[in-house]
Amino acid sequence: MGYGAKPSVCLDLAFGITVDTTNLTHIMRAVMGLYLGMVVLWLWGAFRTSMQGPALVACAVFMLGLAAGRILSFVFDGMPHWLLIVYAVLEIVLGLIAVFLYRGSR
């Protein structure tokens, strides 16, 4: 939420990234909208049995896709800020949990 609501402040404080253009601010807010949309789908799945499968698949694809991109960056770009490494670990764990829950629900 922070880097979408106020990217110039949040990204500078957390990672020393300067957000000084309308285009970059727009991209950060669009990504925040994507994240919020995914959260809506996941909550829908948490409260509607008929949406559990699609929500778990979406969670697995979303989390493991983010993790795959981060791993590629680790290989080609080197190690980032420690918090981004924590995010990668969490994305792998949450993605795998979603896969196991989906497989168990079938």
List the helices and strands and how they pair.
Layout: H1 2-5, H2 7-15, H3 22-47, H4 52-77, H5 82-105
Helix pairs in contact: 3-4, 4-5
List keywords for this structure.
5 helices, mainly alpha, about 110 residues, flat
> Tally the helices: what do you get?
5
Largest sheet: number of strands, sense, barrel closure: none
Content-based structural category: mainly alpha
The string of secondary-structure elements, in order, is HHHHH
Mean of residue pLDDT values:
95
| Count of domains | 2
Q: How far apart, in Å, are the first and last alpha carbons?
A: 33 Å
Helix content: over 70%
Q: Judging from the principal axes of the Cα atoms, what is the shape?
A: flat
Counting DSSP E segments of at least 2 residues, the number of strands comes to: 0
Task: Classify the beta-strand content into a percent band.
Answer: under 5%
Radius of gyration: 16 Å
- Please mark out the parts with pLDDT under 50 across 5 or more consecutive residues, or reply none: none
Describe this structure in words.
By secondary structure, the chain is mainly α. 84% of the residues lie in helices and 0% in strands. It has five helices and no strands. The protein has helices spanning 2-5, 7-15, 22-47, 52-77, 82-105. Helix 3 packs antiparallel against helix 4 (52-77) and helix 4 runs antiparallel to helix 5 (82-105). The mean pLDDT is 95.
In short:
This protein has two domains: 1-47; 49-106. The chain is 84% helix and 0% strand.
